[in-house]
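W.,

You were right to be curious about this one. When I first looked at the sequence I had no strong expectations either way, so I just let the prediction run and decided to look at it fresh. Below is the sequence, 440 residues in total, followed by the output.
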Amino acid sequence: SSGINAEYGIIVTILVLYVCYYTLTSINWPKAQRRLKTKVEARPPSKEDPWVYQPSKIYPPEWYAIPKHFDPKCQAKQNLFFLRTHQTGTSSVTNIFYRYGQEYDLNFVMQPLKLNLNYPGRINMHYLEMMKPKKGYNILCQYMRYHKMDALRVMPDGAIFLTLLRHPVDQFLSVFHNFGIKKEIRNLQPHHNPYQEFFRNPRKISLMASDEVFHFVQNSMSFDLGLNPLQFKNNTAVDNLIKRIDEDFHFVMILELLDECLVLLRRLMCWDLNHMVYVKLSVNNEYSTGISEEIREQILDWNAADKKLYDHFYVKMQGIIAEQGEDFHEEVRKLKKINAEFWRECYNNVLPVFDGNKIGYSLHDTHFDNRTCKVLATDDVTQTHVIGLRQFKDSLPPSDILMVRNHMQNLNKFNPAMLKWTDVKKALDPDDAPKPKIDL
């Protein structure tokens, strides 16, 4: 019997070791760490940044105020910080800043050919300061998570701070679709109604998302603006976030009032109304169709911090609009008319959606060589590549240039109206620089 017991003991030991091995190898450690982090307080950095904000010039409050009437003699502002929130229509707004910056030869805060600045981590300040142009930076409109000291450190004094918010229901549905949450979370894949399954236990199911999309699943606008996920349900922390954004940002735009916001932005920046022209570059509002009222309420409850943030600035925007002069609504109508005229003159067809949510166009034959029409229809990734080629042309390796060329040629099949490689090739071959050592 002792021999039999020994055999049983060996078998049990082997089974225990196997179970331990299987458990250790099957745990998704980043997700497990996220679960553990919800039970502890966030720790401050071990070392404080010695940098201290000391502005060389103090601008008066009037510099940052939105005038009630447009002054033709005003001084144009060319330094701006645009905190891009996700799935809020920032692609079309960023296109405005890309066009303006290129027209006036301004410098962008960016890493070569990348659409984000180490998002969702802190930006690489050492790299940005090392690559800083002699004239300094003018515009930041890449994806980053807001940290006030980082923004002040990289931007020149007097820069205008902007961001864009969207109704939390439409924003969440857009995130759910465009980031492929159903595919990311295995439990949702077999369900015909993934929203209903998600809200059966949103806390548990959201933890199954990969690290790439986890921070988009709940209150992503508040997260982008700096709110700690551990404080999503902390009303005091959310109120403090809204207060900080109110103090730090000179203008918080609302997607549902985009034309009105662009006219206000034009007045704030003292830009020409034609600079505010835009076309729709992605599908944004089509996902809320067919969503039940119960699901809408669950989305708002799950994204309570975003709802509170959005409601505050929506009411504030309505107040700003109400204070504008009589010519304001005429300017809004004029902008809509200019947009419609550009669309009618430039494009003859809207092409099928590609790459998840991007919209393609085809040009009229009469505007085949019109650069403005092409730039308007060019997505933000390609625009980042084009600007990167101009700004970092002396340091980019040939492999990066080849990658940009291939990217543009592939996208051009789906969006013939966008910039072509031949349109930007000259940026690599200025008169005073040697030709790249690759076949263009």
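Here's what jumped out at me. DSSP finds 20 helices and six strands in the chain. And, maybe more interesting for your project: The beta strands are 80-83, 139-140, 160-165, 251-254, 347-354, 358-363.

Coffee later to discuss?

I.
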